[in-house]
Amino acid sequence: MRPIPAALALLASLTTAGCSVFGGQAAPEPEYRVLVSEPPFEIREYPPLTVARTTAEGGWDAAVRRGFGRLFDYIGGANAPATEVSMTAPVLTEPQGDSIPMTAPVSAAPQGDGWRVMFVLPPEYTVATAPRPTHPEVEIATLPARRMAVLTFSGTLGDDRIAEARSRLAAWLADRPEAPAGAWQAAGYHPPWTLPWLRRNEVMVPVAMDG
Protein backbone atom coordinates (compact mmCIF):
# COMPACT_ATOMS: atom_id res chain seq x y z
CA MET A 1 0.00 0.00 0.00
CA ARG A 2 1.34 3.45 -0.93
CA PRO A 3 1.69 5.84 2.03
CA ILE A 4 -0.94 8.56 2.30
CA PRO A 5 0.57 11.95 1.31
CA ALA A 6 1.38 13.79 4.51
CA ALA A 7 -0.68 16.89 3.72
CA LEU A 8 -3.76 14.82 2.95
CA ALA A 9 -3.18 12.68 6.01
CA LEU A 10 -2.94 15.72 8.25
CA LEU A 11 -6.04 17.20 6.66
CA ALA A 12 -8.08 14.06 7.22
CA SER A 13 -6.87 13.38 10.74
CA LEU A 14 -7.25 16.87 12.11
CA THR A 15 -10.56 17.45 10.36
CA THR A 16 -12.02 14.57 12.34
CA ALA A 17 -10.52 16.10 15.47
CA GLY A 18 -12.48 19.31 14.96
CA CYS A 19 -9.98 21.62 13.26
CA SER A 20 -11.16 24.17 10.71
CA VAL A 21 -9.69 26.55 8.19
CA PHE A 22 -10.58 29.29 10.68
CA GLY A 23 -8.27 27.96 13.37
CA GLY A 24 -10.74 25.98 15.44
CA GLN A 25 -9.81 23.62 18.25
CA ALA A 26 -6.89 21.40 17.30
CA ALA A 27 -6.51 17.76 18.29
CA PRO A 28 -6.19 16.94 22.00
CA GLU A 29 -2.80 17.87 23.44
CA PRO A 30 -0.78 16.83 26.50
CA GLU A 31 -1.50 18.53 29.79
CA TYR A 32 1.19 20.77 31.24
CA ARG A 33 1.65 23.29 34.04
CA VAL A 34 2.65 26.89 33.30
CA LEU A 35 5.39 28.07 35.67
CA VAL A 36 6.22 31.40 34.01
CA SER A 37 4.01 33.38 31.62
CA GLU A 38 5.39 36.38 29.71
CA PRO A 39 3.48 36.16 26.41
CA PRO A 40 4.47 35.00 23.89
CA PHE A 41 6.98 33.17 26.13
CA GLU A 42 6.30 30.54 28.80
CA ILE A 43 8.12 28.09 31.03
CA ARG A 44 6.09 24.87 31.22
CA GLU A 45 6.36 21.65 33.17
CA TYR A 46 5.43 18.51 31.22
CA PRO A 47 4.90 15.01 32.61
CA PRO A 48 6.50 12.00 30.88
CA LEU A 49 5.03 11.54 27.39
CA THR A 50 4.82 8.44 25.22
CA VAL A 51 5.59 9.15 21.57
CA ALA A 52 5.77 7.39 18.24
CA ARG A 53 8.82 8.70 16.41
CA THR A 54 10.84 8.31 13.24
CA THR A 55 13.84 9.97 11.62
CA ALA A 56 13.98 11.27 8.06
CA GLU A 57 16.86 12.87 6.19
CA GLY A 58 16.81 16.09 4.21
CA GLY A 59 15.65 19.62 4.86
CA TRP A 60 12.93 20.34 7.38
CA ASP A 61 10.01 20.42 4.92
CA ALA A 62 10.93 17.21 3.09
CA ALA A 63 11.86 15.35 6.26
CA VAL A 64 8.62 16.29 7.99
CA ARG A 65 6.57 15.12 5.02
CA ARG A 66 8.27 11.73 5.01
CA GLY A 67 8.23 11.33 8.77
CA PHE A 68 4.62 12.43 9.09
CA GLY A 69 3.57 9.89 6.46
CA ARG A 70 5.16 7.02 8.40
CA LEU A 71 3.62 8.11 11.68
CA PHE A 72 0.19 8.68 10.18
CA ASP A 73 0.32 5.15 8.76
CA TYR A 74 1.19 3.91 12.26
CA ILE A 75 -1.79 5.55 13.97
CA GLY A 76 -3.99 4.48 11.05
CA GLY A 77 -3.30 0.79 11.68
CA ALA A 78 0.24 0.00 10.49
CA ASN A 79 0.89 -1.67 13.81
CA ALA A 80 0.23 -4.85 15.71
CA PRO A 81 -2.61 -5.55 16.39
CA ALA A 82 -3.66 -3.30 13.45
CA THR A 83 -5.56 -0.84 15.63
CA GLU A 84 -6.23 2.85 15.07
CA VAL A 85 -4.69 5.33 17.51
CA SER A 86 -6.26 8.75 18.12
CA MET A 87 -4.47 11.75 16.66
CA THR A 88 -3.11 14.29 19.14
CA ALA A 89 -1.30 17.61 18.84
CA PRO A 90 1.30 18.89 18.46
CA VAL A 91 3.46 17.19 15.87
CA LEU A 92 7.00 17.60 17.23
CA THR A 93 10.20 17.86 15.21
CA GLU A 94 13.77 18.13 16.41
CA PRO A 95 17.27 17.82 14.96
CA GLN A 96 18.40 14.22 15.11
CA GLY A 97 21.04 13.65 17.76
CA ASP A 98 22.62 16.40 19.82
CA SER A 99 24.18 18.22 16.86
CA ILE A 100 22.20 21.44 17.29
CA PRO A 101 21.86 22.70 20.86
CA MET A 102 19.80 25.82 21.53
CA THR A 103 23.00 27.86 21.78
CA ALA A 104 24.14 26.98 18.24
CA PRO A 105 23.91 29.66 15.53
CA VAL A 106 20.36 29.87 14.24
CA SER A 107 21.58 29.25 10.69
CA ALA A 108 22.75 25.76 11.66
CA ALA A 109 20.91 22.79 10.13
CA PRO A 110 21.31 19.02 10.52
CA GLN A 111 24.12 17.59 8.42
CA GLY A 112 23.44 13.97 7.48
CA ASP A 113 21.51 12.95 10.58
CA GLY A 114 18.22 14.56 9.50
CA TRP A 115 15.17 15.31 11.62
CA ARG A 116 13.19 13.35 14.17
CA VAL A 117 9.40 13.62 13.84
CA MET A 118 7.18 12.64 16.77
CA PHE A 119 3.49 12.09 17.47
CA VAL A 120 2.51 12.29 21.14
CA LEU A 121 0.32 9.28 21.90
CA PRO A 122 -2.87 9.49 24.00
CA PRO A 123 -2.16 9.33 27.75
CA GLU A 124 -3.50 5.80 28.15
CA TYR A 125 -0.51 4.41 26.24
CA THR A 126 2.95 3.55 27.54
CA VAL A 127 5.92 2.01 25.75
CA ALA A 128 4.70 -1.36 27.01
CA THR A 129 1.05 -0.98 25.97
CA ALA A 130 1.19 1.07 22.74
CA PRO A 131 0.57 -0.87 19.51
CA ARG A 132 3.84 -2.15 18.05
CA PRO A 133 4.85 -0.37 14.80
CA THR A 134 5.18 -2.55 11.71
CA HIS A 135 7.39 -0.02 9.90
CA PRO A 136 11.02 -0.72 10.82
CA GLU A 137 11.84 3.00 11.11
CA VAL A 138 9.05 3.84 13.56
CA GLU A 139 9.61 3.30 17.28
CA ILE A 140 7.77 3.96 20.54
CA ALA A 141 9.66 5.91 23.20
CA THR A 142 9.15 7.88 26.39
CA LEU A 143 10.05 11.55 26.74
CA PRO A 144 10.98 12.20 30.38
CA ALA A 145 9.27 14.81 32.53
CA ARG A 146 10.75 18.15 31.51
CA ARG A 147 10.61 21.89 32.01
CA MET A 148 10.41 23.63 28.65
CA ALA A 149 10.93 27.23 27.59
CA VAL A 150 8.41 27.95 24.84
CA LEU A 151 7.79 30.67 22.26
CA THR A 152 4.35 30.62 20.62
CA PHE A 153 3.86 32.21 17.20
CA SER A 154 1.49 32.10 14.24
CA GLY A 155 2.09 31.74 10.52
CA THR A 156 3.76 28.96 8.61
CA LEU A 157 6.39 26.57 9.91
CA GLY A 158 9.61 26.25 7.96
CA ASP A 159 13.35 26.67 8.23
CA ASP A 160 13.32 30.48 8.24
CA ARG A 161 10.44 30.91 10.70
CA ILE A 162 11.91 28.30 13.04
CA ALA A 163 15.33 29.98 12.94
CA GLU A 164 13.74 33.34 13.76
CA ALA A 165 11.76 31.83 16.65
CA ARG A 166 14.85 30.10 18.02
CA SER A 167 16.71 33.39 18.02
CA ARG A 168 13.90 35.17 19.89
CA LEU A 169 13.61 32.37 22.46
CA ALA A 170 17.38 32.32 23.03
CA ALA A 171 17.38 36.10 23.56
CA TRP A 172 14.56 35.83 26.11
CA LEU A 173 16.36 33.07 28.01
CA ALA A 174 19.60 35.07 28.03
CA ASP A 175 18.01 37.46 30.53
CA ARG A 176 16.56 34.74 32.76
CA PRO A 177 17.96 32.27 35.34
CA GLU A 178 16.87 29.23 33.35
CA ALA A 179 19.52 27.77 31.05
CA PRO A 180 18.93 25.66 27.92
CA ALA A 181 19.55 22.02 28.75
CA GLY A 182 18.99 20.09 25.54
CA ALA A 183 18.10 20.21 21.87
CA TRP A 184 15.28 22.48 20.72
CA GLN A 185 12.01 21.28 19.18
CA ALA A 186 9.43 22.78 16.83
CA ALA A 187 5.74 22.06 17.41
CA GLY A 188 2.81 22.47 15.03
CA TYR A 189 -0.78 22.35 16.29
CA HIS A 190 -2.86 22.98 13.16
CA PRO A 191 -2.98 21.54 9.62
CA PRO A 192 -1.36 23.44 6.73
CA TRP A 193 -4.70 24.54 5.27
CA THR A 194 -5.56 26.59 8.39
CA LEU A 195 -5.25 30.32 7.69
CA PRO A 196 -1.60 31.16 8.53
CA TRP A 197 -2.39 33.92 11.05
CA LEU A 198 -4.66 31.52 12.97
CA ARG A 199 -2.16 28.68 13.27
CA ARG A 200 -0.42 27.91 16.54
CA ASN A 201 3.25 27.03 16.29
CA GLU A 202 5.91 26.79 18.97
CA VAL A 203 9.63 26.47 19.41
CA MET A 204 10.67 24.96 22.74
CA VAL A 205 13.79 23.84 24.54
CA PRO A 206 14.39 21.99 27.84
CA VAL A 207 15.70 24.24 30.60
CA ALA A 208 17.51 23.71 33.87
CA MET A 209 16.25 25.72 36.82
CA ASP A 210 18.64 27.38 39.27
CA GLY A 211 18.00 26.10 42.77
Automatic annotation (TrEMBL):
The keyword Signal applies. Residues 1-17 form the signal peptide. Gene3D superfamilies: Regulatory factor, effector binding domain. It comes from the Bacteria. Keywords: Signal. InterPro entries: Reg_factor_effector_dom_sf (IPR011256), SOUL_heme-bd (IPR006917). Pfam families: SOUL. PANTHER family: HEME-BINDING PROTEIN 2 (PTHR11220:SF1), HEME-BINDING PROTEIN-RELATED (PTHR11220). This is SOUL heme-binding protein.
